[in-house]
Structure prediction request, 457 residues.
Amino acid sequence: MRSTFSVLASVALLAEVVSAAPKYSGPPKYSGHTGYEPQVPELDYYISLGPRPFYIVENMTDSPLKTKLKSCENGPFKITDFSIGHRGGATLQIPEESVENAMAGARFGAGILECDTSLTADKGLVCRHSLCDLHTTTNILLNPTLAAKCAVPFTPANATSPANAVCCTTDITVAEYLTLCAKMDGFNASATNVEDYQHGIPTWRTELYDTCAKVQTLESYIDLIDSLPGYRNFTPELKSGADDPVTAQYAKYPPGYTQEDYARQFVNTFIKKGIDPQRVWMQSFNPPDVFLWLKEFPAFGRQAVYLDESGDTPENYTTAVARLPSIKAKGVNIIAPPFNYLLMQAGPDNQSIVPAPYATAAKAAGLDIIAWTFERSGPLAQVKASDDYYYSSIADAVHTDGQFYEVLDILVHQIGIKAIFSDWSATVTYYANCFGLEGPKSADYQKPPGKGYGWGW
Prediction:
């Protein structure tokens, strides 16, 4: 059971985040020049990390790392691009892709904030982690008119089948999407009605803040991040109709609209908003998207992030490692695998954690690494029993929450990751501030890419 202190601290933190109204007009707009240096005024805006980083440090085994982290407990803390807000940056407790989530991630010091970008029926671009997740991340099923448009209408659970529904952003328009409330991602497979279906999140998350969180379009996300004090950057991810089997089956693009159109519209939204490409770390799991950006929008493509989850089985992992040099040869500069690809267990009883072949091969190929997703998992004492994805490669070696920082330290100091996505940005911000980590630098990617990049592998 969560302690009264933890609940009160969380409520106070969210109240602070939502009520913050900093007097800041945002960074200067991009005018096409090079050597862009933002002029950031003095700001009356403070990073607030809450109790979680300190809880993790206190649970660490005594070590030089614990001593170092304890020495930083009084800050000062500042914004850092090493800390990337995954789906906003406070997804552990606040509905993903929402305004409230992004505001909390910003208050937690995330210097780069994410909007996963999905397509609507009228070619709008909205912040949603999947084209087909509205049934688990919003209240769409509670709106009979919109629920009737879902690709798969709600079916209650019965003696032989779980409750089911599939609602996609491509089922509705932008205007309809903006009437929805974001909620914590989850569903009750045993539900016999749509009200009960809304629940079912992991026990270590909370529905405390499921109070109609505000959904975002790509444009409103840009405006929000651009208005935040302290100068923040963007990492939008272009979702694909082939991201998973459900999406591939049910997401329907408008007639005549292609993935290439989608990828171009995605970039052009930032161009129309006057955003400097050096502030934008575009992402995709779909290689042709990245190659299109390299070819047609090189100022954005040079620091595009290729998200790689092609190595989830032992045989596929070997193939994923082997192809890393060819990825670099095609012009990609940044690879982003899940962090379980980068780590392996070793030593007596598998109690040590060491860099895995993927990490070694990526560095040898000259690829910078951004990892995902920190604090997406529950308590570390449960990761083996729960068959957790992110700790699957080191499940025998993790036992307590104090090891969160031990894992992060290996990723930083033995592997050299440039940044990491997190569902609770405060934890990563604390570590990054303690070690002076600033995150990826646009200047490192501004040289024109070498010849040879193109379509396909």
